Records
---
Amino acid sequence: MNFDFSDDQKMLKEQVNKFLTNKCGYDVVRRVLENDELYAKEVWDGLVEMGVTGTAIPEEYGGLGLGALELCVVAEELGKFAAPVPFSSSVFLASEAIKLAGSEEQKKKYLPKLAAGEIIGTLAASEGVQAASLRSVKASLKDGKLTGVKSPVPDAEIADIAVVLVNTGGSGDKALSLALVELGAGGIKKERLKTIDPTRGHAEVTFDGAPAELLGAEGAGWEIYQRVLDGAAVWTAFEQVGGAESAMWMARDYALERYAFGRQIGSYQALKHKLADMYVKNELARSNSYYAAMMLNDNGAELVEAAAAARIAATQAYIYAAQENVQAHGGIGYTWEANTQFFYRRAKLLALSLGSQLYWRERLVSQLEARNAA
């Protein structure tokens, strides 16, 4: 069985890497971090021009008509550069939700614009620090009016549309639905939230009778949301693997150029072991992510378990690599001038995006228990 990517997918990976190498250096990430910019517009525009925002959107809706694996290779490259763009919100979440659940009219209206970068999308599910659940969703949709508060919502300040998880009054897992709302309409208030990584913005969004429409059938929201979440978990795992790899190489390079007591610090056993541990964790995360990508691409029966395992392994690998990268740089690694902070910030933020490690562990265990019982 071949778990490697195809030549075409590798070519896509190389093209995205080349573009980001030229256009998304650390100076760009620092500029967004230190200023009031919400994202790096020139990087986003370049990705749009390359067509990668429409990677998995069918050709009839203006996309490239590729698939989940192509999104995986794009996500990994974006992670390597800690790219300050709303790619995950617009592509992994909003576009996928509309593609999965939207009516033909909704697909024709929004997917071409998302693919062309004319609009940016996001998904609003959580209503507090905990991941969204059947009991936690209080936002409601009634008579075409959306009321409630969603927080944190990724890239909400720059998003034009949002897919919102709402309560429509059913029972059990049929209580929730998805709503599609244009964020430029009336009855919507956005308030920026402070997070550890300002290069990936989040906001609290208050809906006060905002006009909205159902996305998919009423009562099917929870099922659709779970499917979108599994796909996003796989793509985010690849983003984390890319970031962990960059953090590891940054630590390795510094260990080879920095001298202490007349020797490269990389020659000391303690640092060698740390770098080896980074590599092992990264490869474990990569293998889990590859298997999850195969399940996602083939709609495999073990997608839920594979997505959860990839998410857990990638989160652990990225946090470890980012922390040890700072340690490898010594005192300078803690300063504002050090670029180590970009990966540390992103690692911490992605560890909570889509739900914490605890959430995904519980999801993995419950799925395995259900499979064994069956």
Note: The domain at 223-373 is CATH 1.20.140.10 (Butyryl-CoA Dehydrogenase, subunit A; domain 3).
---
Amino acid sequence: MSDIADLETFACVALAGSFAEAARRLGVSPAMVGRRVQSLEDRYGLRLVERTTRSLRLTEQGQEFLAQAKRIIEGVEALADIGQAKEALKGRVRVSAPTTLGTKKLTGIFAGVIARAPTLTIELSLNDRKVDLIGESYDLAIRVGNLPASGLVARRIGTYHFVCCASPDFLARYWAPEAPADLTGLPCILNLNLQPRDHWHFLDASGQPVSAVVRGALELDYDEAQRMAALSGAGIVQVPLHLVEEDLSRGTLIEVLASWGQPQLPIHAVYPSRRYVPLRVTALIEVIRDGLKDNGCTQESVLRQG
């Protein structure tokens, strides 16, 4: 078992980029990390890392050794996983997710998970910025939208739907638009996070894209603020369906342009590597996918640079 611990420590050093960060992730001292890597070097007669006071990099031998070490670690994990499916959800998982999706969907999904798996701890950070998974030590990120090329692994787990709506009071004072072009003459609540913020997109009956130029005196950068503004009668909004589905069911907001196609964005689970993924992370991804009830969207892809 000490050999496996040394290999896991070396793999963590390679991923973290420093002994200190690897020690923090593993919950041991930097000196212990150094001793484990030194033990591997002594045992196999290899120079695995080049150390300076400011940086660390793998040698060519270290790169080859890392590839073999990961195979061994994966094999040991596979043996440990046999017959332990019921114990997959245990330990701690650090998750980053967008604010609206996290508040409206993920917190409820995770509450159900914790009730069934009391040995699991989920640390959920809700923020609309794109976190650095490796640099900030996240196990998993849930992201909405098309993803840029990177070295991360992304698995599509759902679809983010949008809707246009307004309050009954607003529609009584103005009118309900029948086509996107009608929005030009109505006050709209603009989203500062959109580029450009004054163009909303739709699909006509044949699936062709249609763009509408919108205007409004209120421009906001937070989804919940847009919802509250719409409830107050400030204008029409185009927002995530998750945000307003309860308002729509209660009738406090009314959907408009329902016959026109609304924007849809993919929801991805993103994690650092296809290999050496803890079982609790892959199990949690499955739970999230099932909770989002979009089981047809499960394509996995590696996003490569270039």
Note: DSSP finds nine helices and 14 strands in the chain.
